## 1
Amino acid sequence: MKKARRNFLKKGTLGIVSAPFLSIGSCAATENKTSIKTLPVIISTWDAGKEANEEAFKILKSGGTSLDAVEKGVMLAEADDTNQYVGDGGKPDRDGYVTLDACIMDWKGNAGSVCFLENIVHPISVARRVMEKTPHVMLVGEGAKQFAIEEGFKTKNLLTQQSKMDWEEWKKTAEYRPVINTENHDTIGMLAIDEKGNISGACTTSGMAFKMRGRVGDSPIIGAGLFVDNEVGGAVATGLGEAVLRTLTSFLCVEFMRNGKTPQEACKMAIERLTQKHKNYKDFQVGIIALDKNGNTGAFAIQEGFTYALSAEGKNEVSHSESMI
Ligand code: SD4
C-alpha cells in the first residue's frame, strides 16, 4: 500500500471519528455504505469534463493542490471557443452580450465568485482572485471586470462568429424559453480531492443562452451551483439555474451526505427535493454530481442524458448518470 494512501486512511478514519458534526449514527451509516477510495479522485459535469479531468489530474500529480487542479481543469473549457456554454465562445444573452458566471471553493471553506462578467476568458481565475485577494466572496458586472483588469487579466471580445450566428437565428423568433434541453448543456463543474484528502470545487458557465440581460443563474452562487465542506464532501449542479437557485441543490446535497447519505443517495435526494418543489420539472433538466471525504462519488439528474466524467483509480471515463425520468 502506498504511503500517501496509508496516511490518508489513517487521517480519513480519525477525521470521521473525531468530526464534531457527525453523530455516531450518521458516521456508521456512511461507513457501512461506502468504501475509502484511492486518492486523488476528480469528477466533472458533462463530456467536456473528461479533458478537464486529465488536466486537473496532471496538476495534482505535479504537486498542485485540489484548488489548483479544479481551476486549471475548468480553464480548458473556458478557453475552448467551440464550447458555446462556457467562457470564450459562450452563447450571448438576448441583447448579444456574452456574460459569464463562475465560483470556486477550497477545503478551508474559502469561496470566491464572479457574476455577469464580460470580456474576460477565465472567470474562474477571477473568482479565485476574489477569494484570495479581497475581503469579499462575490463581485459582479463592471466591478468584477475592473478588478480583473487591475489583476492583469486581458480583455477580449468573447462573441464568436458561430455564437453570433446562433443569436441572429434565435432573434428571428426571439422566443424566450427558460427550458434547457439535455442536448443543450456544457457548463462545467468540477470537484477534486487530493491525496491529502483536501476537496475543492469549481463551476463556470456562460449561463442560459439568450437569457435576459443581467440574468445570473446558479453556477456562481455558493450553495446553489457549488458547495464544498471538507468535513463532508462537495457537490456541483448544472442545468436550469432558476430551479437550482430556489432549492440550493448543492448545499442540500452536501447536507444529506453530512447526515450519512452516500454521494449517490444524496444526489438523488437533492434532485427529488427540487422536483417536489417544481411541478413542471419534466420540462427541464438539472443534474448534480457529488464527492465525499473518502473519494466516493455520485451523479443524478431529472432527465436522461446527463453525463459526467470520473477520474479515479487509473481511469478517466464519461458515464451517463441515473435519472428520475
Ligand atoms: C445556468 N446552470 O446558468 C447554468 C446553466 C447550465 O449546463 O448548467 N448549463 O442556469
Note: The chain has a mean pLDDT of 89.
## 2
Amino acid sequence: MTTATSGRTRLSGVVGTAHTRVEGRDKVTGAARYAGEIPFADLAHGWLVLSTVARGRVRAVETDPVLAMPGVLAVLHHGNAPRLVTDYAGLMGMTPDPTAAVFQQDRVPHVGWPVALVVAETPEQAREAAEALVVAYDEEPHDTELTADHPDAHPAGGVMPAETGKGDLAAGLAASAAVVDAEYTTPEEHHSMMEPHAATALWDGGRLEVVDSNQGTTWIQGELASMFSLDASAVRVRSEHIGGGFGSKGLRAHQVAAVMAATELQRPVRVVMTRRQMFSLAGYRSPTTQRVRLGSDPDGRLLALEHRSLSRTSSVYEFVEPSAGVARVMYDADAHYTANHVVPLDVPSPTFMRAPGEAPGSFAIESALDELAERLGVDPVELRLRNEPEVGPVSGLPFSTRNLDACFREGARRFGWAGRDPRPGVRRDGRWLLGTGTAAASFHSGAGPSTATVTAQADGTFTVRISAADIGTGARTALTLVAADALEVAPDRVRVRIGDSDFGPAMIAGGSMGTRSWAWAVTEAAGELRERLALGVTVPPEGITVRSDTTAALGTLAQKERHSFGAQFAEVAVDTATGEVRVRRMLGIFAAGRIVNPLTARNQLVGGMVWGISMALHEEAVRDRTSGGLYAPDLAGYHVATNADVGDVQADWVDDLDPDDPVGIKGVGEIGVVGAAAAVANAVRHATGVRHRHLPIRPDRVLSAASAGGGAADA
Ligand code: MOS
C-alpha cells in the first residue's frame, strides 16, 4: 500500500483496506428490514393481475364477484384507475415504460401485462381474489419471434449512437490475410434478484411516502411526482436495504399501483411482485443475434471490423441492448463499423441488466477474436495485445487510463497461460476433455451529479447523508471508508445513512457509477467539514453540517474515453459423453480504478464472473411461440449457476488510479460479467474442438456437436 500523496488523491488511510459490511450483522441476524416486511398500521395488500393473452384488448373486468370476496377492498383497472402523466422525460430523458404506468389503456401488448390490482386486508385474501378475477379479452394474433431478417428491425442506440462507421469494409476484408465472418446468438436472460420488487405507499400529512426496494430513491421520487402531478417535495421515497437490483429496480408497476391504491383507499397499501410476475414485469435482457466480421494482416493486426447486433423490444417501449458498442472502445481498424438494431415484438419490455450491451456483445466479439487467433496461429492473448489502440477507436479521445495490457500480462502469469498448447481437443483427464480460454472485458466508467451532507456531532462522531442505494454492492461500507479518510477519522466514528430521497438528489446505483459518484460528493462535503473543524470551532448541540453538490465539478471534467478494463481466463472440463461442461477455474484481472474496499469489490467482480459462467452454460428463458409466454418462468425452470456449478473463481486487479477522480475510483459493478462467457466458450473450443456460437452451451448442444463431428455447433 502506497502512502504517497498525489494531487487531490490521498493514498493513506482506510480506503483500500478490507472491511466487512457495516450493516452485515443486521442483515444476517434479520434486524435489517426489507421493503416487503416493514410493518405499517392498517396496511392493505395489493395483488397484481396480469394478462393471459399476448395481444389484444381487455373487453371486460368482472369485478363484482371479486369485490364480494372476504377482505377485498378494491379492484383497480383501466376502467376506473386515475389518469397518469406519462409524456414526461424521466431517467436519461426517456419517457417511462408504459408497463409501469399501469391501467391507462385497454390494450394488451404482451403476456403478463398488468390489467388489474386487487386490494384486500391480507395478502392471502388479495391473492385469492386476484386469481379468481375474470378478465375477458379480444385476442389478436401476436409475434414474439426475433429473426435476423425481421421486417420491423431498425437502427436504434438508446442513449448511444445506433451506428458508427469509417473506412472501406469490403476493401479491408479483401486485403486481409485471415477473415472471420460469424453469427452469434444469446438468449433472453432474466435478473430475477433474490429480493422481489416490493413497495408500500401511504399518505402522511399531505405527503406521499413510498417504502420501496430500488436503485435510486430520488429517481423514483421524480418519476412518481411526474406521473401523479405532485411536487417532488410532496413525495418521499425510502429504500434502505435492497436484495439485488442488477438494473431491474427502477420504476415498475408495483410502485405505481401501490400509490394509486393508497390514494384511492387513503390507507397504506403494499404491492409485492411474485417470482413469476418478475419474469414479465421486472424487465430482462433481450435475446441478441450478432454478426461479427474481422479481417487482419498475417500478424493479427485488424484491418477490418464489423459488429452488428439485433435485439428485441416490446411494442410499447424502445429499449435497446447495445451489444455492438464494445468494439467502439476495444479495437481499432481502418475499416470499422458497428450497428445496433432493434425489432419491436409482442413481448414484455426488456431493460438494463448487468453490463447491458457489453455482456452479450463481448461474447460475440471476444469469440470472434478467438476464432481469428486460431486461424492465424497467433496466441489469443498476444492477438489482443497487438490490437491495443492508442486512443478511443471511434471517439478519438485519449483513455483516462486503460492498462488492459497489464491485466493480460498479470492474468497470463497467474493463470499459467505461457506455453499453452493451442491445439484443440488433445488434453484429457479421464472422461474429461480440458481446455483454456481467454477474453477481454471493458465497461464504461463515469460519475453522475450527486449531493451529500456530512454532519459533525458534538460527541465526536459524524453522520453522512446521501440518497445512495446499496443494492448489495457494499456501497454503504465503501462510503464509510471514503468519508473516514476525507474526515481523517477512524471509520467507527462515521455513520452513513442512505436510501432516502429527503437526503437530496444523487446518482442512481447504475452504470457502475454509483460508488464513484457518491464518493465524490461525500469527499467534497467531508473535506470541507474537516477544514472547518481544523479551525478549532466548538461543535454545537445541533452539530455542524456541510453540504456538497458535484454538478459543477463534473461539468469541468476533460473529455476522455473512460472505461474499466479486464482480462478473463477460464479452464473447463467437458464430458462429451454426457455433454456436461464444468468450469474448473476462472481468473479475472481488472484495471478498474482505485479499489475502495477489496472485500466487497472482489465480491462484485467474482459475482459478475459467476454470472458469466451462468450465461455461458445455464441461463435461457424460452418463449413459447403459441402463447407468447415463457416456459417455466421461475427459478426451477430458469437455470442459474449455483454453488456446485462454480469452481475456483478468483478476481484481482492491477494498479489503476483514475487521475480525474478525487478518490481515484472507476467502478466494479458490471465489468466482472463482461467477457466471462466468451472466455468459457473459448475454453470449450480449446477442450473439444467445437466452436459454440449460441448460448447457453447446453449439454444437448455439446452432444449434438460431438455426434456431428463438426468444428462448430450450428444451433
Ligand atoms: Mo445496472 S444494469 O446499470 O443496474
Note: Confidence is low (pLDDT under 50) at residues 1-8.
